[in-house]
Specification:
Helix 14 runs antiparallel to helix 15. By secondary structure, this protein is mainly α. The radius of gyration is 21 Å and the shape is globular. The longest helix is centred in the N-terminal third of the chain and has 36 residues. The C terminus is likely disordered. The protein folds into two domains: about 425 residues, MFS general substrate transporter like domains (Growth Hormone, Chain: A); about 50 residues. It contains 18 helices and no strands.
């Protein structure tokens, strides 16, 4: 059965199966942040060690997402999606059995290899299943709502599991959900592939790995080695050389890993930059909040998870609302509101940072951040795939997903580096922790401001014209994914 022949009920089932993959990946991330203090105590990890527990996953994920997207376009999206589910389950089992920090970091990398085959491929399946613009925007809104569900359930579920069975249990829950998704995918998701997918680009893939790995390693290790140390300077130099080589090599390749012509579309380039900034804010938010609530405020994992609930509930509420707004009015309004919400949250939490800040102030900041983050996902995804050739939907969706993971990695790396001088085991360095926390919140505010500015600059009429020209230049007229409706095209209510 082709995508065009799918019944509405079958399309909704495909959407539900794809959302299951997003759920286990997002739950794993949000629940794991709550468990960081327990992992540190159990495995004797430093702050930089905790950063690697998070970033080993996001870095490998970011490095392989585009390869997975193009591979799925070529070999079959359902096939690659099933491989991803199987690897993610295996990686989760290995994480739960890790006897030390190094083993856990390595197992997280295995998880990431599987995860790289899930979300971008699932997004590509959704894009090719829901072809009508408003229907696709609503489906993406549901997709974003799953992020909200995972953020609402993740900290609480993580806290319950950690308090009941230890941090290892966080990885156990991935196994039954992943196996169920694997069976359902085999039974109900139709196979699809691009009419003409790109060839493998091993040189480009290697340059991406060197760029992301060396940049993140240099940032994470800078508090210990010093910014002017040969190690850090060498890492940053390697990242710069890899970036320049990537730009030169990809521009000369007939079928590059990342088609530079995509970025001639201002909305697409803006969505990529917005994803980096928004998810850098999220990664930093979860990292610093978990350490603050448990190390400074003395909460257990469950109570810390409950304190994050206001942010998670607002994300859950605003994500589908954002999808409807994108479908009816375009991406501009939700992007501006998202940037304003995240900026306000960062400013509030930075201005009130102290060891005994009232809980209602924390909750107010968490609500503002949840509103902002809940609104930002749908316009990012919709803008990334709208107007791009459907034949390359896997690559376009993978670029958006890669930007999210790069942002998350950089957020944890940068804010973790800021917090590294305030390693707290029982509140003995509270003053230092609070000072560094204030700087972390200003970084979050800066990320929110960047989202606001990008939303204003990349969603106007001239920006949309560049998207239309980019689609024509890609040589696939008549096969581009329909763009979200402009406000002037929306029928009055």
């Amino acid at each position: 059965m082709s995508d065009a022949e799918l019944t509405p009920r079958r399309r909704l089932l495909v959407l539900a199966i794809c959302c299951m993959s997003l759920l286990i990946v997002s739950l794993d991330t949000t629940a794991l942040n709550v468990a960081l203090p327990d992992i540190r105590a159990d495995l004797g990890a430093s702050v930089s060690g905790l950063q690697w527990v998070i970033d080993a996953y996001t870095l490998v994920l970011a490095a392989l997402l585009m390869l997975s997207g193009s591979t799925a376009d070529r070999l079959g999206r359902r096939r690659v999606f099933r491989w991803g589910l199987a690897l993610f389950v295996v990686g989760s089992l290995l994480c739960s059995l890790a006897p030390g920090l190094g083993w856990l970091v390595a197992a997280r990398a295995v998880q990431a290899v599987g995860g790289s085959m899930l979300n971008p491929v699932a997004m590509s399946i959704i894009t090719n299943t829901f072809t009508e613009p408003r229907e696709r925007a609503r489906a993406i809104g549901v997709w974003g709502g799953v992020v909200g569900i995972s953020m609402a359930a993740g900290p609480i579920l993580g806290g319950l599991l950690v308090d009941a069975s230890g941090w290892q249990a966080i990885f156990w829950v991935n196994v039954p959900v992943g196996l169920a998704a694997l069976v359902l995918t085999t039974l109900f998701v139709p196979e699809s592939r691009a009419p003409r997918a790109r060839r493998v680009d091993p040189v480009g893939q290697l340059l991406v790995i060197v760029l992301l790995g060396s940049l993140t390693y240099g940032i994470i290790e800078s508090p210990h080695s010093g910014f002017a140390s040969p190690l850090v300077l060498g890492c940053l130099t390697a990242a710069l050389v890899a970036l320049l080589a990537l730009l030169v090599y990809e521009s000369r390749r007939a079928e590059p890993l990342i088609d530079p012509r995509f970025f001639r579309s201002v909305p697409f380039a803006g969505a990529t930059a917005t994803a980096v900034c928004a998810f850098a804010a999220l990664g930093g938010f979860l990292f610093v909040t978990s350490l603050f609530l448990q190390d400074i405020r003395g909460m257990n994992a469950l109570h810390a998870g409950l304190c994050m609930l206001p942010m998670a509930l607002m994300t859950l509420f605003c994500a589908p609302l954002s999808g409807r707004l994108v479908g009816s009015r375009g991406p501009r309004l939700p992007l501006l509101a998202a940037g304003a919400g995240m900026t306000a949250a960062g400013v509030l939490l930075a201005g009130t940072a102290s060891a005994d800040v009232p809980l209602w102030v924390l909750f107010a900041g968490y609500v503002l951040f949840g509103i902002g983050f809940g609104l930002v996902n749908a316009p990012i995804t919709n803008t990334a795939v709208s107007g791009m050739p459907r034949a390359q939907a896997g690559v376009a969706a993978a670029v958006a997903s890669t930007s999210r993971q790069v942002g998350s990695s950089l957020g944890v790396a940068v804010i973790g580096a800021v917090m590294a001088s305030a390693t707290v085991t029982g509140g003995g360095a509270t003053g230092s922790f609070v000072a560094d926390q204030r700087m972390a919140w200003w970084i979050v505010a800066g990320c929110g401001l960047a989202v606001l500015v990008l939303g204003a600059l990349t969603t106007g009429r001239r920006a949309r014209a560049t998207a239309e020209r980019a689609a024509r230049n890609l040589g696939d007229e008549g096969h581009a994914a329909p763009a979200a409706p402009r406000q002037s095209e929306v029928a009055p209510r």
